[in-house]
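Follow-up to my earlier ticket, as requested here are the two runs.
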Amino acid sequence: MFEWKINSRSQIPIYQQIIDQVKQLIANNTLKPGSQMPTVRKLSSILRINPATVARAYQELEQEGILGASRRRGTIVLGETDSPQRLPLRQNRLSNTVNSLILDALSLGYTPEELEAAFTLQLARWRIQREIQAALTGATKTGEKNIIRIVGSNDLALDLLVSRVKYENPDIEVQITAAGSLGGLLAVQEGKADMAGIHLLDEETGEYNYPYVEKILKHMEVAVVHLADRIQGLMVLKGNPKHIVSLEDLKRPEVTFSNRQKGSGTRVWLDYKLRELGILPNTIKGYNRELDTHLAVALSVLKGEADVGLGIQAAATSCGLEFIPATKERFDLVIPVIHYRSQTFAPILRIVQSEEFKRVVKEMGGYDISQTGETVLVK
C-alpha cells in the first residue's frame, strides 16, 4: 500500500499536491482503472488537513475525467478502455491534452524536434518506472503473443526501439531486462535471451564488442546489429557546484559518486580507466553504490544523493543535468541468426534501419547514428 504525503512548507497548494500525487500514482500504475479512492473524510484524516481541501482536489480530478463516482464503491479511478461508449471520449481527451502540451512548448520557443526528443525521453523514464513497479507487484501479461526477450545494457535509444516495436506490433510482447552487457551475452549463450544490448571495451585490442562476442558466443552464429555510437561522461548538477571536470575528481573526499552495476559496459570502462589512472576504487566515496540504469544514476544526482555519476548524455539531458564528455562507445545488438532471420524480429530490423528512428535518436543528443542499422554476421 502506498503512503500519502504532503509538504506543508511547499509553495504548491496542498490540494494541488494531492492532485499531482494521484496523477503520479496512476502514471506509475500503482492506482489502476477501477481503483477505489479513500473517502474525503478518510484522506483528510490521514493527511491531517481540512476535508474541504481533499474535496477540492477530488472535484478537479473529476472535472478532468481522472476520477469518477460509483454508486457502490464511492470515488474511483476512471480510464477503463473496454467500454465502446467511453472510447471516443478518451481519445478526444487524449488528443486535447497532447495538443495543449504541444502548443505550450512551441509558444516557449521549443522546436518540434526538441519536443519529440523530450517526449521520447520522458516516456522512456515512465516505462522503466512502470516495469519496475510491475516486477515488484508480480504483474504478468496474458494472451498468446510472440515474445522477444532482450537482456543486456540499458540505453534510451534501445528503449525507444522497444517502444516503437510494441506500438506498431501489438502481437509482439517485448520483455527487456537491464542486466549489463556481460549479463546479456551470457543470457544469449544460455538461451535465456533472444537479443543482447552491449557496449564492452576490450582492454587488449581497444575494440568494442566483437572480442567479447567471439569469446563468449564462439559456438554460436550471431548477427551484430549496430544501434548507435554514444557519448559517455560525467553527470553533475547544473552549475557543477563541486567543480568536477574529470574522473580524477572522484577521489576527492567531499565528492560522492553513483556507480553502475558489475558487468555493465559502463562499469567495465570505468574500472579500466581507474586502473589506467592509478585510482583505487576504495578511495572513491560511493563506488560500491550500484544502480542498474543510466536514468537511475542521473536521478540519484538530481535528487542530491550523489554529486556525480557516469552515464550517457541522453540521460543527463532528460534530467536537466550538466554533462562532461569522457568517451565515445559503440552500442550493438547481438542476435542469434536463427532469431535474426525470423519473422518475429523483422519489425525490429525494419525500425532500427528506418530514417525516422535514426532522426529521433540523433535528436536525443549524445548519439552518432551514421552507422545505425549496419549488420555483421559472426560465426
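Run two:
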Amino acid sequence: MIGRRMRSESAMHETPEAFIDAEAAGHTWVRRSPRPEDDHILGHTRNWLNALPQGVCPVRLPEDFPRITNELCVRWAETAELESYFAELEFSPREDRGGFPPLIKEELLAMHVYSLRNRLAPFEQRVPHQLSLLG
C-alpha cells in the first residue's frame, strides 16, 4: 500500500487479535519510507486542526508527530480507516516502537473519543432503525 505501512491481508481488520494472528503467520512489521512532508503539518491538516473543538484539537501531536497528524487528517472522514489507524497506533506490535509520551496518548484518546461520539453509525446500522420508524 503506497504511503502507509505495509500490512499483510490478515492484518486488514486491525484488532489486537489480527495483529497477533498476522505475527503468528510470520508477518514482519515495517514502517514505510520517510517522505519530505512527514516533517511538517500540511495546509489541509492545519485547516482540519483549526476546525476541531478546543479540548479535542491536539497541541503537542502536530509539533512532535506531524506525520501522524497528517495521516489522521486524511483518514478523519473515513470511519473504518480512522478506526483502523487508531487501533494501529494503539496496538502496533512493531518491535522498534517505543510508544507515545503520556500527553500524546491523552491527545490521541481525546480525538478518538470525539470521533466516536460525533460520527454517524454505518449505513447498515441506520437503515433498519429508520425503517422501523416508518412502521
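The only thing I checked on run two: Residues 102-117 form the longest helix (16 residues). Let me know what else you need.
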